Structure formats: structure tokens, C-alpha cells
């Protein structure tokens, strides 16, 4: 028997999910919650196997809540049910440890129960449209990397790796035995080549492109 908890701040969504799942023989609902605080409190009483989680809760966003949940309950299988169809957001939630991602707009009973069973059994669930979207994005990133890689010199890559380790310009200069001015030049060139406006953008783009 799969113990399932549901968290969503819209009563109609919860009612719809309960109606869809109430006659499924291998799934039992252990609790429903409408915000992050009630969820964290409720899980102390009854811990489910799978948590169906909306990301846009009134008191805590999913990006905040998921790390807290998995730190306290590392064996909890989190399945996101959201209206957000953003590839970077989906990728971020999966990287944080979620086991699946469903779109509210495309979810029917068969898809929902299949996803719950998949993550309960240790799998990863992404519906076909999301897989295609993420694959398309990965191919675009790969083309950018293939086009860009020859333009980034070995020394620029060394500087980039040290920037990603949060070293200052002076620390990078000392470590690579080069001048501070040379480090600043490499940093400027990296910003130009990766089309980044600042260091935060440089780090984000570099990670997205797998240049770590």
C-alpha cells in the first residue's frame, strides 16, 4: 500500500485529486495540507511514502521547502504537481532531489497513478512533453558548448573554475602565478564570450553549459 500526502493551497485541486484517487486500491491518502507550515507539522505525525507537492504555496515556495523536507525525511519521494512549465525550474527541482514532475494542465487519473507508483518504486517520472522539452533544451545547450568551447582558452577555463570556487581575483592571480591585471582580462573575456552581464550571470551560464 502506497501512503500518499497531498499539498496544495487550492481546495478544488485537493478535492479533484481525492476524487481521482479514492478508489485506487493500492494508494491511501494519509493527509492533505494547504501550506508549508501545516505540511511540516503533519509529517511529524504521519510520514507518507510519496508527497504530491504544489510549488506555489502561500508561505513557502517549493525551492525552499524541498531541501527542508529531504533533510528531515531523506527517504521521502517528492512528486511535484505544478502549473509551472519552465525548463530551468523543472531542472532545478529535479536537481534538488524531487523524483517526478507533473503539469496540472495535462494530468489525468492514469498519468497521476502511474507517476505515483513510478516514484514509489524508486523511479523518476517526467511526462512525455516535459522530457521532450528538457531534451530540446539540452541539445541547444550542447550546440552552444560545441560552438563556444574552441573559443575558451585553457587559461580562461582555469580562471573560470576558480571563479566558480569563489576565489577573488587576487587569490586567482596568486594561485596561477599571473598578475591581477591578467586575471581581470580573463574575467572580462569570459563575460564577453558567455554573453554574461556580471559574475552571477557568468556562473549561471557556465553551470547550465556544463563548464564546471
Structural class: alpha/beta
CATH C-level of the largest domain: Alpha Beta
**Record field, number of beta strands:** 6
How many DSSP H or I helices? 10
- Binned strand content: 5-15%
Order of helices and strands: EHEHEHEHEHEHHHHH
Q: What's the structural blueprint in terms of helices and strands?
A:
Layout: E1 2-7, H1 11-21, E2 27-33, H2 36-45, E3 50-53, H3 62-72, E4 77-82, H4 87-95, E5 100-103, H5 109-120, E6 125-126, H6 128-148, H7 154-164, H8 169-176, H9 180-193, H10 199-208
Parallel strand pairs: 1-2, 1-3, 3-4, 4-5, 5-6
Keywords:
single chain; 212 residues; alpha/beta; Rossmann fold; Arc Repressor Mutant, subunit A; six-stranded parallel β-sheet; 10 helices; 6 strands; 55% helix; elongated
Summarize it.
With 212 residues, this protein is α/β, with parallel strands linked by helices.
Written overview of the protein:
With 212 residues, this protein is an alpha/beta fold. The protein folds into 2 domains: 2-132, 3-Layer(aba) Sandwich (Rossmann fold); 140-208, Arc Repressor Mutant, subunit A. Helices cover 55% and strands 14% of the residues. The chain contains 10 helices and 6 strands. α4 (87-95) links the parallel β4 and β5 (100-103). The longest helix is centred in the middle third of the chain and has 21 residues, at 128-148.
